[in-house]
């Protein structure tokens, strides 16, 4: 309880800066090198939150806890633990509700759906993301509305609903603002390049050869510091090339995806790549 008396705006800013630093390291190095640090970071803030008094500082700290817990949940997903992902997002949602920030509530709720996707429960994931999007409505920035539609499109693609997925992708493009990053949404990385990657991913999952076009644009423009994202992108390209019957290109992309996934120790991406290779889609003549 004594430590909670030291809580002030500068300390909360320090916590938020630490979370931002973990995000950058996570996308470059992968979750395996950061998970313990992120969990300790969340635990430290949660301890302070439990003993802090009602007011603006507690509300701001709750927002910081929510964002950090969601990051820890995403890292757990990358390490192949959807159960832990779900639990960390439950913690994130609890803190988000206390923060009373519609953007944070919508983001952590929708992101939790990825635990369901990795458990092959796509229809439930669709329902959860739709709930988050509908609850947020027009109370959140356009950038987040674009992200919510794109996440919904991915879930719909996993649920094998191509028409609905295309509608969601079109809505994501419609809401994507033309400006740069939104400083009020430090947890979101979404631009036209990222959206092209997302669109290509959805189309690849649906077995549509046109996915190559979006993914080829994205792979040339994506910031190379997004190492894990690039691994996923190249895995999608391998799948899309195989649909076109371009097996040489598919094998090359699968090899590059495997190298990047190994570099970041991404269990999730390695599983995707192994399934692709075992299915024979990236092998010549298949």
From TrEMBL:
This is Uncharacterized protein. It comes from the Bacteria. InterPro entries: TPR-like_helical_dom_sf.
């Amino acid at each position: 309880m004594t430590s909670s008396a030291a809580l002030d705006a500068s300390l909360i800013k320090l916590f938020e800066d630490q979370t931002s630093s973990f995000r950058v390291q996570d996308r470059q190095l992968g979750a395996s090198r950061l998970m313990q640090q992120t969990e300790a970071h969340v635990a430290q803030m949660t301890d302070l939150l439990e003993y802090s008094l009602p007011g603006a500082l507690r509300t701001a700290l709750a927002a910081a806890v929510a964002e950090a817990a969601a990051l820890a949940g995403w890292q757990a997903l990358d390490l192949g633990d959807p159960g832990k992902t779900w639990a960390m997002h439950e913690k994130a949602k609890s803190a988000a509700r206390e923060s009373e920030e519609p953007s944070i509530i919508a983001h952590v709720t929708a992101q939790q759906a990825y635990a369901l996707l990795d458990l092959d429960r796509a229809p439930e994931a669709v329902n959860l993301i739709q709930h988050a999007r509908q609850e947020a409505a027009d109370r959140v920035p356009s950038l987040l509305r674009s992200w919510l539609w794109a996440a919904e499109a991915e879930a719909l693609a996993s649920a094998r609903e191509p028409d609905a997925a295309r509608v969601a992708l079109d809505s994501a493009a419609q809401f994507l603002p033309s400006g740069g990053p939104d400083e009020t949404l430090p947890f979101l990385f979404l631009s036209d390049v990222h959206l092209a990657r997302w669109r290509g991913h959805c189309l690849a999952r649906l077995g549509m050869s046109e996915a190559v076009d979006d993914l080829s644009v994205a792979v040339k423009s994506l910031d190379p510091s997004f190492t894990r994202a690039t691994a996923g992108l190249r895995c999608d390209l391998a799948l899309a090339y195989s649909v076109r019957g371009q097996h040489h290109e598919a094998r090359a992309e699968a090899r590059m995806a495997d190298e990047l996934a190994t570099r970041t120790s991404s269990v999730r991406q390695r599983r995707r790549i192994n399934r692709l290779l075992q299915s024979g889609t990236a092998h010549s003549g298949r």
